[in-house]
Amino acid sequence: xxxxxxTLLTLGVCASLAAQTKPAPDKAPGLDKAKMEAYIRQVxxxxxxxxxxxxxxxxxxxxxxxxxxxxxxxxxxxxxxxxFLSADGRFLVKGNMFDVTKQPFExxxxxxxTAGSPNFGTxxxxxxxxxxxxxxxxxxxEEAKIIHENVKNAFPKDVWVFFKDFPMDKLHPWAKGAAIxxxxxxxxxxxxxxxxxxxxxxxxxxxxxxxxxxxxxxWAETKNVDAAKxxxxxxxxxxxxxxxxxxxxxxxxGVSGTPTIFINGRPMTGAxxxxxxxxIIKIELDYAKKAAKDEKCCEVTIPSLVK
Length: 307
Description:
Elements: H1 4-21, H2 33-44, E1 52-54, E2 58-59, E3 65-74, E4 77-86, E5 92-94, H3 106-111, E6 119-121, E7 127-133, H4 138-154, E8 159-165, H5 175-188, H6 193-202, H7 212-222, H8 227-236, H9 240-252, E9 260-263, E10 266-269, H10 274-297
Parallel strand pairs: 7-8
Antiparallel strand pairs: 1-3, 2-3, 3-4, 4-5, 6-8, 7-9, 9-10
């Protein structure tokens, strides 16, 4: 016969396990946004005059944690800061969490929308570069040249490059207008986009908010791009929503400056010299080859009975 002590101990263990396995609440109880804002200001050393917006906690792929959207408005633009909030509202985690059962940066790869973006390289290549750039940014000019010239020559079949607009218009007054014009060019004549891309970076020092349209239309006439259609598209800002969507995508991914390059989902902020970028691409290619080898080794082939 079991003793009373054994019975009570067993019940206690069961109750403890039940408490541990009890599902976490779906939402942090009574989130005080004012207190959360004050706390995040202290963590980030944000001055009082810099607006901070705390969003509603959202479902996260990580058990026990929710995504907490936080936006900080700076003179250079609005930036998203990546936080996770524990279900009980007690713990705040900044940065990325990784699920070791999945490939690193898988969530970033899923968030990156490349359909309909200007691109070059080999579709389906093992390494994908998604570049968030600003046509008025000097560092973007240098990085654009490195990518457009070196990647094509060094990795003609192994890399697929996509361009995304991220004009920092509070810092660069004609950047958004240039992004709109570039998107217009892409919609009118996709093959001409990369010529526009190279041309506008090359003539960056000559362009002002006042002469942007005149300069762009002058370029269009030399490249047999329909200048009338392009001018109308620029005047009506027909592609502004496309540009805004790319900016919002960048913010959700934590883009805070340009250029920012996502290499197979891995974010790299700032201009990368060619030796560094080349080395990163080579490492990503090695990862891809190893992954392909591991998958192949584990395949089971069933002989066909059909002769």
